[in-house]
Amino acid sequence: MTTLDAVPAKPARTGSRAWYVFRSNPLAVFGLIIVTAIVLIAILADFITPYPEHLGPIGDFAAMSAPPGGQYLLGTDTIGRDLLTRIAYAYRLALLMAVVVLVIAVPVGVVVGLVAGYMGGWVDYLLMRLTDIFLSIPPLVLAMSIMGFLEPTLINGMLAVTVMWWPWYARLIYNVTRSEAREGYVLAAETVGASTPHILFREILPNCWPSILTKMTLDIGFVILIASSLSFLGLGVQPPTPDLGSMVADGAKYMPDAWWLTVFPAIAILLVVLGFNLVGDGLREAFETEV
Amino acid sequence: MNSVLSTLLVRVTAAIVVMIGVSILIFTIARVIPGDPARIALGPLATEEQVEAMREARHLNEPLPVQYAYFVRDVFHGDLGRSFYTNRPVTTDIAQFLPASLELIFVAGVLMIVLGIPLGIVSAHFKGRAADQIGRLLALLAVCTPAFVWGVIFQLVFAYFWPIFPLEGQLSANALPPPRVTGFMTIDAAVAGDGELVVDALYHLVLPSLALAMAGIGQTARLTRANMVETYERPFIEMGRAYGFPSFAIATRYAFRPAFIPTLTILGLDFAALLGNAFLVEKVFVWPGISRYGVEVIIRKDLDAIVGTVLIIAAAFLLVNIIVDLLVSFINPRIRFAEKRA
Amino acid sequence: MTAVPPPVLAIRDLRLAFRGAGGESEVLHGISLHVNAGEKVALVGESGSGKSVTARLAMGLLQGGRGVRVSGSILFTGIEIAGGGPEIARLRGTRVTMIFQDPTSALNPTFTIRDQFRRVLRSHNADLGAREADAIAEAGLADTQIDNPRRVLDSYAFQLSGGMNQRVMIAMALVSRPALLIADEPGTALDVTVQAATLKLMHDLTEKTGTAVLLISHNLGVVREFSDRVYVIYRGSMVEHGTTGQLFRDPRHPYTRALLSAVPRIIGGGLPRIPERSPEFASPLVVHPGCGEPGERRAA
Is B318 within 8 Å of A136 when comparing Cβ atoms? Predict the structure, then answer.
């Protein structure tokens, strides 16, 4: 072990420096505020929403399609359910889905990319052609067709999006690995006889973290965007589970009179995607400005 | 061998490999999902014999690789199976619905370039100043908002509150569609010599194609800006300034040409997003395109139709990528003239 | 008494400061230099000494940028250009031109040499016809001893060798017979023999066109070969000024001495290291006899 320590390691990035750059970027901080707020709302939905009982199919029948204001801050839907409450719970679902998708898709993609990028040869060719196959079907179409073969449930939705998502990480890590594989520290580790898993996971992978982290942050927003697109088309979770995409789809029928039914869920989608995008962009900048 | 030609060859070979892979992928998924395709096709009222007969006719009792072989043979004969939703060959359905989508996507693609690139150039030129900040914010908003939200917003604003544009559909409700020549409404109307109809079709194209293009416009603007900013750092730009090139010329031509090459490469990928988002926009605007067909057959689990649609879309995407690659290798002098050395 | 023609370039007490996130930092602390017509003057210093920004200020390229503050005087052929402005913009590219460190990357990779030459020629004469421009370009290239100017014009920069691109740049710079050519570390990106050849070319051509040269360099060997007078700059201040002969025979300022001794010797000891900062380097300007700025002749 000591011999490997003597090997010239790539200089580690100081997290505190990246944080400083991030902190000084007003847009990134703004995004972080939005994201924190949304995450808190999602976690604490049970406690902070005014009408948690409106989660299911029963609403306040005396106040159906009520415009925003008064008792119901963002209005109610056609069954009298408080929009604010349902949006909060929809956030919870959306974030959960994003986390699950990424927790599965990212490791799979990263491993494929590492192996293909480092091994080269036919392993490279095979793995990357496989990746290409998934990437050559437009993202939404792939997810849709998978959903088409399955029942529209939350789990299946997550499955479809996961299957569609991993190739992007494979491609990203593949490119990084290919360029890192020629760097001094990798050659040094090879000379000392380090095993391939060691090289992949202890040498190359740590240098991929900034890219992975940045992309994951951006992707939380984009997974939610794709998921809401799927459910907008009716291929996501089914009622009465609250979902931002289906709320927009349902509300569109009552435009322009009950405009709040569409507008507020739409803004909710925009906010969460924007928030994670701003944070992700801030991260990218913070990681890039290093010595 | 000419570099452009060799690029083409490499890309086409890769595309063929990928298409084979895609077909295997989608075919396998379609066959391994739970449920009996024949039963689904015939419905719950069909008798067991009828279902069994169909299973035989569709080779559904054979092992998977054999089924795939039949499938490939059929595809080469132009047969993508039959949709039980429309009760027609899938190829007929696709031929009917695809052109409307292509029209939409084509116009959206043009908008992406025509609006996105200038936005990016202006942003880069005024880097750091107000125009840039606003431009970047707009681009970001465009990217973060799903296409269906844009569709709904545009409907709300431009069709309801200020009814400038029509709400939905390809033509006005009382308009007679022209005889079908290409399937592209604007072209067919023009061919039929009906000027009013052409205008009507164009009016109907505006909102949906704009909604479809928004994310792409934002992406293109950001990409163009980033590439332009990077190009501005390069020594030949300083040389241009040292020789008194006007800054407008630098922005639009001298810096733009080298910056455009990496932009173009990524534009092909953004086209994929258009193909996918078309589904969303077509639903909002009730556009008679492939996407509506696609969603319907997906909901109905019309397997042949699903497989056929996915294959066509994948093929279209690959084709666009090949064209973009060709364009890049043609425009980029480094590739075009790769074998000449002074 | 015969009137002395005014210098082509006369910089007096030039100060440059950049305003950034952490406040303002001064990069040039009041430097002065001059270049007479037809003269070859070198400005020598390490990277970060301020020599490059001086060159760019002399062309009016930095003025007007965000957070840029300039004070002092820069007289180019008698015109005050320290503040930038339209006068120098008009003269840039015709009366004062610049050649750059790496000739290949100074040329746009997506335009042919012909296209770029046309742009250069048309930037101050928009009505110049294509054929006229090409004829001028060909003649210019022939002057730099390029055998087949037409083939070079049809090529892209990446298809030509570094030395060839250097000739192209020199041709572009001298085609309008400028009063001053600013050469920013010319040939640093080329290998030594090519660099020597292009320097000779530059020397001969500028003699022919009567162009004065301000040579920016950190390479003392090049400076010695090429220039008549030398200024040495250290961290934004001028530290020594003399003719080439005077400076190399009798370097007086501690920094100049350190620089000269840092030139690798072929025989004898290893490469001596210049201490990063020595308080001696901040000694005031040393001017050799017979030199000095116009209007303030000083004897040693």
Answer: yes
